[in-house]
Amino acid sequence: MFKFSREKKNSGTYEYLIVGLGNPGKKYETTRHNAGFMCIDTLTEKEHFEVKKLKFHALVGDCYIDGHKVIVMKPQTMMNNSGQAISECASFYKIPVENIIVIYDDISLEPGKLRIRRKGSAGGHNGIKSIISHLGSENFPRVKLGVGAKPHPDYDLVDWVLGSFPKEHLKLINEACENAYEAIKIMLTGDIDSAMSKFNS
What we know:
By secondary structure, the chain is α/β, with parallel strands linked by helices.
């Protein structure tokens, strides 16, 4: 059984799937590629529940957020196969693609900046490529969290995204995770435009 928060307004199927992208394992915990996991950690702290049940090749948990019944996920495959867990869960619970909210790192944004999109291409992000491939659709909303660009063009991209945040950026990232949580609450009402207007950088 999942652990629910105390706020139960109704029963029935899940309305939304909220996914944070990252790589499993302690060595990746504070890396740029794990910004999505960090946002999920903030969400679970705010809503007083845990994401710890292993199902669909992911750690999952669920709760009600402002009356919306949601399932929350951290895929436990590596980043480039994130779509497997998401597609299995969405298929099992019959969650439509437009109700799958994905949170992930973006090197094109300055550290701590947010950008919300209703849909779109992968933009070179391997986790998003996998999700699009498994779902057969780009029409899922996403919350992109800025982690900063490579210091110079020749810097290896893998080394950059798998590198840890410097201390001066962690405060910005933590603040961005708080903002992402607030944005998601707005997105759960279906008003993505309002979330974009308020939080997009």
